[in-house]
Amino acid sequence: MKRRLAYRRGLGDGAPIALGYLPVGVTFGLLASQHGLGLLEATLASVLIFSGAAQFMLIALLAAGAPWLLALMLCLLLNARHLLYGPSIAARIPAPATGLAVLSHGLTDEVFAVALSRLDAQPPAQRPWWMAGVESAAYGAWVGATVIGALAGDWIIRTLPLLANALPFALPALFLLLVLPYFQAGRRLGIVTTLVLAAGLSLAGYAAAAILIASVAGALVCYRGMPWTSTRSH
Amino acid sequence: MDLNTIALIGGIALGTYGMRALPMLWGRRLDTTGRPFRVLQTLGPMLIAALLAVSVVGDGAGRSGWLDWLPEVLGLLTALVLYRWRGGFVLPILAGVLAYALGLLLR
Q1: List of chain A residues whose C-beta atoms are within 8 Å of the C-beta of residue B37
Q2: Is the ipTM of this complex over 0.90?
Q3: Digit-coded pLDDT (tens) for A142-157
Q4: Do residues A127 and A42 both lie within one domain?
């Protein structure tokens, strides 16, 4: 019973992610079909990869006729930031290795951000189920929206253009609300550094590298100001 | 159905899953009082901040004036004010999306 409630709480906490994923997933499905991917291939990409950035890059590379190996390497390079997500939250999820292996598939940028902010508010034993709920909301929305986009994306975007353009803004709004609790003494300078650096790199056309470079730079700024670093000269 | 495309999708899926799962499995062994864990706890919020910045300005190419950023400014301010006032996530985010849509119309 508690597991079911935790799963439902997770579904609720994942709802803002689902809201943001819906229009982006529809757009992916539409673009995929416009670039010659069938319904099966587009859906398989969302089911198996479950990473918007890599999937959009895949479409662009296929359209450009990029070699197979280059497309693979570029898509994986784009997802390299995922290397940092698991270690940040794994120790706080008391689940066996098989459970963590299953949960890993759904660890997108947005799921990570929600998990980092809200995991500690969940009773430890319920955390895997809560996490499964968050991931189910995100995954269901992404895969469902891809199918809808591949079948009827063109009609949706023509009929509801403002909604299709505005709904993806749910994701930046979600990130803003998730970062706010951390915006306090000790982390403030690091967060400002990260924001400025990531925005600058992104505007310069290096959005994928921006996430890794800016977050590590911000963490270094914070790390130098943390209490445990003051004893390192001993 | 193009088998080359399916194989490419499978390769990207395997690589992405590996980058998510292997660090996750390694991370469960981390001592939560140790320095590596504390460093990761510092890094986590920075990753969210970076995602915020990239998701806001990611498609900024081609914008010339401040008015071009009106939808983002309206959307973020609305979400922030409602979050401070009412708390929760869903209402501030929905209001932020509506304000963003208004900004798109006004721009």
Answers
A1: 91
A2: no
A3: 999 999 999 988 888 8
A4: yes
